[in-house]
Amino acid sequence: MTSTILYSGLGLDRAHPIRRNGDVVELMRRPGARFTVYWRGRQLVGGTPPAVRWLDRTYGLRLAEATGGNCLLLGEDPSGPLLALDVSALDGGEQGPEMGGNWVMLRSVGGLLPAQDAALLAYARGVLVWREKTRFCATCGGGLLIQDSGHSAKCSEEACGALHFPRTDPAIIMLVTDGRDRALLGRQPVWAPGMYSCLAGFVEPGESLEDAVAREVWEEAGIRVREARYFASQPWPFPSSIMIGFNAVAEDGEPVPDPHEIEEVRWFSRDEVRGFGEADRPGEGGRFLPRRDSIARALVEAWLRR
Questions:
Q1: In terms of CB atoms within 10 Å, which end of the chain has fewer, N or C?
Q2: What's the rounded Cα separation, in Å, for the pair 117 and 242?
Q3: Per-state percent for the chain, helix, strand, coil, to nearest 5
Q4: Are 127 and 107 in contact (CB under 8 A)?
């Protein structure tokens, strides 16, 4: 697999020694500190083509004071610490608070951003969404104290003291092919009409990744898989997953969709898949492939190139 998977490959030094021992407030005040900001699910970009809109130390400190300082250390570069700040407490109307850029959902612009910017915003989003949704201890219900420069939390109840870390749910996604060089693609009823993609699902307790591939293909399409080979993985913080891609080889058989999850699933030849279009210009039969920022698209395109 030679193509780069979007949201992966972040080259940032995550500065683990500083993260473990540092005071995030002190880090925010260091010379060269820069801030990327998050507001109610959206992140700030600017320019044409878009890129991360960084805020300087003075602006970031003022925002942190106004919003309660929900901040985390992402890492550092030669200029200083790079931090992510949640400013969701600010009023902003439909467009978001004015900060010299545009508030966007990451998936809407991910493919337009420089690769490192897309990966960094995915990283920031993943941790901040965890912080947003994890306010109380799952063991005893006590309040949580944020530590490790924003990357973990500890229960405030002395009798408990449970540690909590950002959650990542493993999900497998697979392009299944057969002996006739066809690909198994399907669609869920909640998807936009005409979109077809690879089968996918979450890994369950007590199974390997390869076990999950075989189970999901059987459950969703009634097809047995005899081989699964790792392809690549992709951070997917929408909200908290990692997609683990496989190429799988199926035994003979015609697919039968799971009526609870799958609207249609069928074998497609290479020529048929090459005739698929994009969401804004569907191909023959109104069909189109997933967006280019997804590992599903990378799996299909790699198969078409073979």
A1: C
A2: 18
A3: 25, 30, 40
A4: no
Q: Name residues of the chain where pLDDT drops below 50.
A: 1-2
As given in the structure block, the two tokens for residue 284 are 């023959």
Give me the residue label for tokens 């990744």.
209
39 to 54, 98, 158: CA distances (angstroms) = 14, 11, 33
Rounded to 10 degrees, the C-alpha dihedral 150/155/161/165 comes to -40
Two structure tokens written together for 128: 């901040």
What backbone torsions phi and psi does residue 49 show, to the nearest 5 degrees?
-65, 160
Burial track 161-192 (b if 16+ CB lie within 10 A, e otherwise) = eeebebeeeebbbbbbbeeeebbbbbbbeeee
Degrees, nearest 5: CA angle 273-275-280: 105
- Taking the CA atoms of 293, 107, 287 and 254 in sequence, report the sign of the dihedral they define: positive
Q: Residue 128: what pLDDT?
A: 97
Check if the beta carbon of residue 222 is closer than 8 Å to that of residue 251: no
